[in-house]
Amino acid sequence: MGVLVVLALVAIQPLVVTSQTTDSLQLRFGETIAMVHQAESAGATPSEIGALVALLNKALGLYWEALKVTAPDEAQRRAELVAQVDQILMTVENRAADLTALASQRSYTNKVLTYVWGVVAAVLGTILYVFAASFYQKYRIKRTFQMRVTRK
Amino acid sequence: MSVMSSQNRRTLIAVFVTLLVVCEMIAYVATTPRPREQFFQLYVLGAKRMAADYYPDNDTNIRLGVPIMWYLGVTDNMGTVQLVSIRVKIGNQTIKPPDDQQALESPAPVVTEFLRYLQDNETWEVPFVWSITDAIPVGGSTRILTLQINNETYQLQDCSASNGHNFRLIFELWTWQTDANAFEFGWMAGGEHRVAWLQVWFNMTSPRLA
Fold first, then answer.
1. Are the beta carbons of A130 and B12 separated by less than 8 Å?
2. CA max distance for chain A
3. Number of structural domains in chain A
4. Residue B178 and residue A122: Cβ atoms within 8 Å?
5. What does the pLDDT read at residue A80?
6. Which of A142, A148, B134, B196 is the one with CA 20 to 30 A from A53?
7. Quick check: A117 and B27 CB within 8 A?
8. pLDDT digits (tens, 9 = 90+) for B65-108
9. What is the pTM of this model?
10. Inter-chain Cβ pairs, chain A and chain B, closer than 8 A
11. Quick check: is A83 in a domain?
């Protein structure tokens, strides 16, 4: 009888473990989205974010599939699916972290360049003003010398 | 020897400073993201992907085993990636619908849910093919026992309606809240809790004989 109980416990254990694993996975899905948000706010492009979202949806599909695998003889399959989900989430987290650093640097450079272009535009505008003023002054002098004095 | 008079120099500096201020203001506006309204769209369309023809022959009285094709759709206009869940609930006339004012979900039982990560401005549309596969008369009412959605069969408990009239499928939009680390009904936008939900009514007046 005792042996039977031990055997039953051993048989149940993998199921209990995988159930806990899928629960923690659900939390990890939420944590991963926070990392994707960081990449977005750092200035990652929609196509870069799209690649992460595609991976996340793939993980979600596998997670959903793992939840449906409930038969005791399919515990191995379930564990494999959970491991795949874990692997994809890890990939997304790593890529999101890399993307955050890259996008942050890119956004900073773009911002600095935009402000520098502002200064350049102001300088060019001033030079244009000097030329325009000089041209106008020459025009006025020319007009003055072309004047004729007539007695009224 | 200076070619430029002090009057001209002052004018030149004034022009440069004015242009600099204007150009840097333009640069600031160009690099600052504009605030936008954050919202989701949730919709249910009929078999022809239109807001019509929800039932075969427009007959809201469903028969056992007759498949009904709809499309569920969500659009993310939150400006960020969102993890969304469309929860499908089944209820009758007496069960409370979701509360828009209090942002409370309906107490109706959840039949199934659809999960998806959505990018900003992305619309996700999923086919929703459902049929009532088993229903029995109990007293003066009809009890739905099993519902099939997208080839998955779901057992229902205590889902009955008087004379089989006024059953309804309720679709609620839930989103993952990173602060709470959980799904919540609706979403937060500008400090406000907003919700999106839909319901479609139907009758089941021809159950199998118990």
1. yes
2. 137
3. 1
4. no
5. 93
6. B196
7. yes
8. 999 999 999 999 999 999 999 999 999 999 999 999 999 999 99
9. 0.81
10. 83
11. yes
